[in-house]
């Protein structure tokens, strides 16, 4: 297969720590903070999160002159806490790994239960806040498509429509 190569790790990697605040996914799907990964052995890699979208996920890849930085993160929100009002400079695919996220945006408030998947649109016109109103930690797995060197999110004051 053209362009396909396999690189075996020098030593086995440890299983992911589910209590870790952020887990990074390497090219093979194995969790670690660096080092070699078995590229091309995706079926053998653990599934960290799986989700389902009832409709299409609208994600448009836009070529950027400086390229696109891809990051996979785990974000945990404790019961009673929120992300704070913010927006992202690039789109993000989100899978809810556990708990129920209550997401508020200009379009309204929706609940995203465990196993749901959705896209957070990019730009200051897509301000939102995620709340954990439940009794268990909400774990989100996010795949972001950001301009290089730009923060993952920008905090903003609560919009006027959210204050009333």
UniProtKB/TrEMBL annotation:
Pfam families: Cupin_2
Domain Cupin type-2: start-end pairs: 74-142
SUPFAM superfamilies the record matches: RmlC-like cupins (SSF51182)
Domain of life (superkingdom): Bacteria
InterPro entries in alphabetical order: Cupin_2, RmlC-like_jellyroll, RmlC_Cupin_sf
Protein name: Cupin type-2 domain-containing protein
């Amino acid at each position: 297969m053209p362009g396909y190569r396999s690189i075996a790790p020098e030593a086995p990697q440890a299983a992911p720590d589910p209590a870790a605040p952020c887990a990074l996914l390497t090219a093979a799907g194995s969790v670690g903070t660096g080092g070699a990964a078995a590229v091309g052995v995706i079926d053998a890699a653990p599934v960290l999160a799986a989700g389902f979208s009832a409709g299409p996920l609208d994600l448009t890849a836009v070529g950027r002159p400086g390229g696109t930085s891809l990051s996979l993160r785990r974000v945990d929100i404790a019961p009673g806490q929120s992300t704070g009002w913010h927006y992202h400079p690039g789109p993000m695919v989100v899978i809810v790994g556990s708990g129920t996220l209550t997401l508020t945006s200009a379009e309204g408030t929706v609940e995203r239960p465990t196993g749901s998947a959705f896209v957070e649109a990019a730009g200051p016109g897509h301000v939102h806040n995620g709340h954990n109103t439940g009794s268990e930690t909400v774990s989100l797995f996010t795949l972001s498509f950001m301009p290089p060197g730009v923060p993952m999110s920008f905090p903003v004051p609560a919009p006027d429509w959210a204050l009333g």
